[in-house]
Design a protein that fits this description.
Elements lengths: L1 H6 L11 H4 L5 E5 L5 E5 L2 H11 L6 E5 L5 H10 L4 E6 L2 H13 L5 E5 L12 E6 L8 H5 L1 E14 L2 E10 L2 E9 L14 E5 L7 E5 L6 H4 L7 E11 L5 H10 L5 E2 L4 H5 L11 E5 L2 E9 L10 E9 L3 H18 L5 E6 L12 E5 L4 E6 L1
Helix pairs in contact: 8-10
Length: 381
């Protein structure tokens, strides 16, 4: 995988980007909607590498990629499968397809076919595939992806589980059931235009638009009730749950997304909003829970005691605004403690089930969600 990244020239797929951007470890936006928001980009190289490791591509395999983007990832896949393998990549926009074809031609990669179409439908003419990789976010797993996978194959998709929380999950069919064999935290541009269109709504929370709530179709949001929310009464709830400075809280975020009735949302805030005191510095991933006209978000503060090795330890807290801020902040804080006490040390598995599957019995740490395509089961075990 490292050899592929060192060999395939990324700058050829980003002809309008300076070299420092083309080879920097950051995403590069390449297409924008009418409001100026990015709708396509070249993914961050370390995320690309992480997903290639999850996919476990082997020479000679047939690969389907959903979301051609710049074509760079398809080029890496083409390098990994070699001359005896083949890659099919799909995108919904003609200009993106044309750009990917140009980049692949410039790089001298000839075992990749770029198709214009709805990625949610896959590409049956070239099926079955040994590996299917979605490089776009999906809320639910399109049936075509599962149907077009060869026996023993692997599907890798950034699956939006609930609210803004998504994970790059590798699935394999084990005894007739689709089960995760690994997952990593990440977020991708959502599928657009086709049968699995997954729109986002951006809700400004202050008049200057320095804090924004990002919501999804599975969440109920009253934008008017949340406008200028930070003028509403303020409350704090501290949890006594701690993390070392560099430690990831990704599974806490997943727990809150599953446990809270309206899921968990991203709430990016500018430095200006923090410096003005409009918001207390949110936890780095800027996670919020909202209900009606009430908003809460995670924050942290240095804990009274340091780790034995001297590292800084932080305590998680919840900031709330709105008429029911105290109650909602208390509920979120209780869920943080519940996760810490009973589930923090456990692994998490994700299963895909048909919507008409027999419902599983209720169990602590098991959450079941229906989306328009499947039933998703998230379980701490």
């Amino acid at each position: 995988m490292e050899e592929a990244i060192r060999t395939v020239p990324r700058h050829l797929f980003l002809p309008n980007a300076p070299l420092v951007k083309a080879y920097g470890n950051a995403p590069v936006d390449t297409k924008f909607d009418g409001s100026g928001r990015s709708i396509s980009c070249a993914s961050q190289p370390d995320i690309v590498a992480m997903m290639l490791e999850q996919l476990d591509v082997q020479p000679g395999q047939k690969i389907l990629e959903l979301g051609a983007g710049t074509g760079f990832n398809a080029g890496l896949l083409g390098y990994l499968v070699g001359e005896t393998g083949h890659v099919t990549t799909i995108d919904v926009d003609q200009d993106i397809v044309d750009g990917a074809r140009s980049g692949l031609a410039a790089a001298g990669i000839h075992n990749v076919e770029v198709i214009l179409g709805d990625g949610a439908l896959g590409h049956a003419p070239n099926a079955p595939y040994d590996r299917i990789e979605a490089t776009v976010g999906a809320h639910g797993v399109p049936h075509a992806w599962l149907d077009q996978l060869a026996p023993g194959g692997r599907l890798l998709t950034p699956l939006r589980l609930r609210g803004s929380v998504s994970r790059s999950i590798a699935f394999e069919n084990q005894d007739g059931a689709w089960r995760s064999v690994g997952s990593q935290m990440n977020t991708f541009m959502p599928l657009r235009k086709g049968i699995a269109h997954d729109p986002r709504v951006f809700v400004p929370l202050d008049p200057d638009h320095t804090v924004t709530l990002i919501t999804n179709g599975d969440q109920k949001v009253n934008a008017d009730a949340l406008s200028d929310i930070f003028r509403q009464p303020h409350t704090e709830a501290w949890t006594d749950v701690t993390f070392r400075g560099p430690e990831s809280a990704e599974y806490l975020e997943l727990w809150l997304a599953c446990a809270m009735p309206n899921g968990l949302s991203r709430m990016p805030a500018t430095n200006e909003a923090i410096e003005k005191g409009l918001v207390t510095a949110p936890y780095p991933s800027s996670t919020a829970v909202f209900e009606g006209g009430t908003l809460t978000y995670l924050t942290r503060r240095p804990y009274a005691k340091k780790a034995p090795d001297g590292a800084t330890v932080y305590e998680f807290g919840v900031i709330g605004h709105g008429p029911d801020a105290e109650a909602l902040a208390s509920d979120v804080a209780d869920q943080v403690r519940t996760w810490n006490q009973g589930f923090r040390a456990l692994d998490v598995g994700v299963d895909i089930q048909p919507l008409d599957a027999t419902p599983l019995a209720p169990k602590p740490g098991r959450f079941t969600f229906d989306n328009p395509l499947n039933r998703i089961v998230v379980e701490w075990q």
